[in-house]
């Protein structure tokens, strides 16, 4: 294996170091250390719902590697103990030791590692290494590397000699019971990450925020597909309101299973309305739309409109007053239902905007269509 460092040095948004206080009782998150990381508005490319997985780890004696990608915050039960010791909601390795009694401490380069397959290839903009509830048993430092490898490589192939990994986060000290955030400045696309912890310890969660960048040859081969889907390169650019949940949820795979798995706004008390804007996989022609209000029964959006815009003409997607073409007129929505509409004669678009009236929840938006020749060319970088 070999490594190279990306141009530019990642910045460390959450500079937390050292132990947290021992658990004092009560709310385990009361003294949790965190910060505002702007990149967390981007989707988590390591989300299990996208197909991400922890492929391998050299050690998981105390807690399983799969916990790293569990949705939601880590839980802590002070009374939970098993035959190996304290049960922790994260990935935790055994304590490393030196070679002999004269050198009892681990060597400087001793470390544990885990291999992560991202749910969709993408450009990584930021990473959170969350040590929630690991107060005195977190790693002293971490490092993160990435690689782009086609197909579905095995751990042995990823770790083979000659495989060139790119350093995204150099070895850096972190803190216990904290959200340790790192901004990554790189335009490279990655499919896998390697998380290293020095010399050992526990990490509760790993979040990898960025922009999906699927294989354009695969999208071209599909022909007609969901242009807005996150796994196909769709992206939630902006929304009027994110109070209850992220608009990125609306383009996740599958149907929503519960109310917080969609996009829901707070209750409006003015005369306005809410909206969400998605960037499509590329310039394309929409042919059919699904608006799903699944699990929203008393709080579904009342009506919806859909608009399209082609930014290749120079139109600004952020200006909602010009350049937008109606794709679906204002239409009544039913609670907890999938609404399907065919679009006749829709123009090419790079963005869609869903307006809901006056507020509420939409679980999923599906925009089925095909890339234009120009859209396919741009995705290929030609």
TrEMBL record:
PANTHER family listed in its UniProt record: ALLANTOICASE, INACTIVE ALLANTOICASE-RELATED
GO biological process per UniProt: allantoin catabolic process; purine nucleobase metabolic process
Pathway: Nitrogen metabolism; (S)-allantoin degradation; (S)-ureidoglycolate from allantoate (aminidohydrolase route): step 1/1
UniProt keyword Lipid metabolism, yes or no: no
Lineage: Bacteria, Bacillati, Actinomycetota, Actinomycetes, Kitasatosporales
Keyword Mitochondrion: no
Signal peptide (from-to): none
Gene (name only): alc
The organism's place on the tree of life at top rank: Bacteria
Gene3D superfamilies: Galactose-binding domain-like
Catalytic activity: allantoate + H2O = (S)-ureidoglycolate + urea
GO terms of molecular function: allantoicase activity
Allantoicase domain boundaries: 51-212, 233-370
EC number: 3.5.3.4
Family: Belongs to the allantoicase family.
Polar residues bias locations: 1-16
One Pfam short name: Allantoicase
InterPro entries: Allantoicase (IPR005164), Allantoicase_dom (IPR015908), Galactose-bd-like_sf (IPR008979)
Region feature (Disordered): 1-20, 240-265
Protein name per the record: Probable allantoicase
Keywords, alphabetical: Hydrolase, Purine metabolism
């Amino acid at each position: 294996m070999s490594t190279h460092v990306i141009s530019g040095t990642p910045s460390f948004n959450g500079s937390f170091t050292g132990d947290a206080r021992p658990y004092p009782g009560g709310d385990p998150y009361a003294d949790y250390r965190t910060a505002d990381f702007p990149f967390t508005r981007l989707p988590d490319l390591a989300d299990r719902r996208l197909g991400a997985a922890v492929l391998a780890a050299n050690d998981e004696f105390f807690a399983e590697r799969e916990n790293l990608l569990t949705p939601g915050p880590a839980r802590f039960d002070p009374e939970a103990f098993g035959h190996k010791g304290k049960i922790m909601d994260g990935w935790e390795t055994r304590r490393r030791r030196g070679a002999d009694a004269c050198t009892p401490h681990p060597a400087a380069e001793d470390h544990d590692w885990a291999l992560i397959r991202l749910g969709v290839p993408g450009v990584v903009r930021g990473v959170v290494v969350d040590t929630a509830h690991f107060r005195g048993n977190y790693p002293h430092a971490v490092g993160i590397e990435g690689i782009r490898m086609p197909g579905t490589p095995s751990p042995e192939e990823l770790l083979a000699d000659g495989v060139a990994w790119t350093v995204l986060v150099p070895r850096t000290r972190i803190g216990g019971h904290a959200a340790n955030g790192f901004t990554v400045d790189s335009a490279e696309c990655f499919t896998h990450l390697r998380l290293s912890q020095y010399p050992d310890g526990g990490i509760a969660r790993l979040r990898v925020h960025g922009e999906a960048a699927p294989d354009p040859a695969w999208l071209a081969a599909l022909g007609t597909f969901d242009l807005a889907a996150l796994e196909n390169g769709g992206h939630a650019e902006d929304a009027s309101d994110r109070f209850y949940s992220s608009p990125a949820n609306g383009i996740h795979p599958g149907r929503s299973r519960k109310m917080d798995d969609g996009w829901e706004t707070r209750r409006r008390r003015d005369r306005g309305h809410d909206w969400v804007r998605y960037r499509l996989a590329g310039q394309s022609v929409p042919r059919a739309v699904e608006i799903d209000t699944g699990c929203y029964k008393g709080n579904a959006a009342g009506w919806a409109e859909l608009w399209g815009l082609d930014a290749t003409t120079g139109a600004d997607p952020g200006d909602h007053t010009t350049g937008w073409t109606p794709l679906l007129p204002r239409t009544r929505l039913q609670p907890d239902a999938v609404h399907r509409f065919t679009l006749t004669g829709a123009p090419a678009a790079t963005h869609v905007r869903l307006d809901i009236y006056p507020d509420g929840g939409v679980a999923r938006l599906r925009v089925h269509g095909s890339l234009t020749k120009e859209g396919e060319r741009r995705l290929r970088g030609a």
